[in-house]
Structures are given as C-alpha cells and as structure tokens.
Write a structure and sequence with these properties.
By secondary structure, the protein is mainly α. It has four helices and no strands.
Length: 70
C-alpha cells in the first residue's frame, strides 16, 4: 500500500473527507488516525468514537489502546 505513490497529506485528507461523508466507519477510523498522526488528539478521539459507535471493531481496539495509554 502506498508503493510508487508520493506522500501527500492534503490529498489524503481530501479523500478521507469524501469517504466519511458516506458514513463509512472504516473511513472514520482512518480520519482519526490522520489527526492522531498530526498530534491533534482532541480531533482524533471523536473520529475514533464515531467509528466505534458505528460498530467498527478496529475502532474499538483503537479506543481501548488510547485510553490504556492515556
């Protein structure tokens, strides 16, 4: 994944924004991961929660780890 593709955070955020508008819980998790990678934890957490609330198990795991590590 990402092979032969130049890293572009602006494009990444654009595609994630489109995807979360479809209420895709996996996209919501990745939106949270995007903000987490930018050290914007206050914005990341609601995305993790929204994904988990939609029943996405990977988001539940992520929330568990976030709360475990603080």
């Amino acid at each position: 994944l990402g092979e032969d593709v130049t890293k572009d955070l602006e494009k990444s955020l654009n595609y994630l924004t489109i995807a979360v508008k479809t209420e895709d819980p996996e996209a919501m998790l990745y939106m949270g991961r995007y903000f987490f990678s930018q050290k914007d934890f206050a914005t990341a957490l609601p995305w993790f929660q929204k994904s988990a609330d939609a029943g996405y198990s990977d988001a539940l795991d992520t929330l568990g780890i976030v709360y475990l590590l603080g």
